[in-house]
Design a protein that fits this description.
By secondary structure, the protein is α/β, with parallel strands linked by helices. The chain is built from 14 helices and ten strands. It has two domains: 287 residues, Alpha-Beta Barrel (TIM Barrel); 28 residues, no CATH class. Helix 1 packs parallel to helix 10, helix 8 crosses helix 9 and helix 8 packs antiparallel against helix 11.
Amino acid sequence: MRYRLLGNTGLRVSELCLGTMTFGEEWGWGSNQQESRAIYGRFREAGGNFIDTANVYTAGTSEKLLGEFMEGHRQEIVLATKYTNSWPQPDPNAAGNHRKSMMQAVEASLKRLRTDYIDLYLLHIWDQMTPIEEVMRGFDDLVHQGKIVYAGVSDMPAWLVSRGNTLAELRGWSPFINLQIEYSLIERTVERDLIPMARALGIGVTAWSPLAGGLLTGKYAKGLQAAGDSRFTTPAMQGRYSPDPRKEAIVAAVQEVAREVGRSPAQVANAWVLSRNVIPIIGARRLAQFEDNLAAATLTLSPEHIEKLDTVSKVELGFPYHFLNSEFIRNLTTAGHYASIVAAA
């Protein structure tokens, strides 16, 4: 396993991150304790040190199992967990980005994880209510209290992430050092704003669902519908797996590249994410599945294969990018010298 610096920090994390949303069987489709421990042990054996969980995963069991598994080597793990979400209950403050939710959640996570600090604490999903000033000040307080080392954010618009980090810079608060987003060959719309924003601000990027919920493995290539699977009960999930010519073309291209390089489609899809300087969050319900994902760290795609995958999965960036990149505008903003300026750069 190779390592990368996470964002604009000196923190060394493995180039693959272990996702533990499947640790526990409370949701009806996860891994039991024995299988979860085997996956955790294999990741450690391969040199992995970056592990992701959340307070809501498998009703807290994911954090509890990690607390048990990390015993004796906690300091070697770069541990990321999240707050914000709660299943419906009478208390309206049990969820949200606000300070009360943050403070209550971090204490509960520390207990479940059997640790006195969290390396990377992320806001899980933007609640569209809490002022970003409240969020950033809360994270900074937790850093000063020694309960977290770094702050991060998941599933928030680029304009708000950048506003949060600008406030942190101006006020001397702890900034977001990690952005967690859905990113895969199927979902590339984050290339419009979120990824450029992260690059400009020095924020490290991790990708959840790099296999698009298994779609890129070819598992659902025929029909793209999986009747009887509990994950397909929501409209969002049904939409992801509904028939779509673009998705079918991408899956076919991944399978073609996989045959040419002698690897699995899952490894090709994860290797493509790695080629974008993004850390895939990999997980599986079974050790054999996890081994397949893990092997992506040993695969480097050729420029020709990357171009093939880029082309079939390309998304339109939209305004203002197509406008700014037009030859007319480029020449207009450089007095006709765009080509010579770019060449000099």
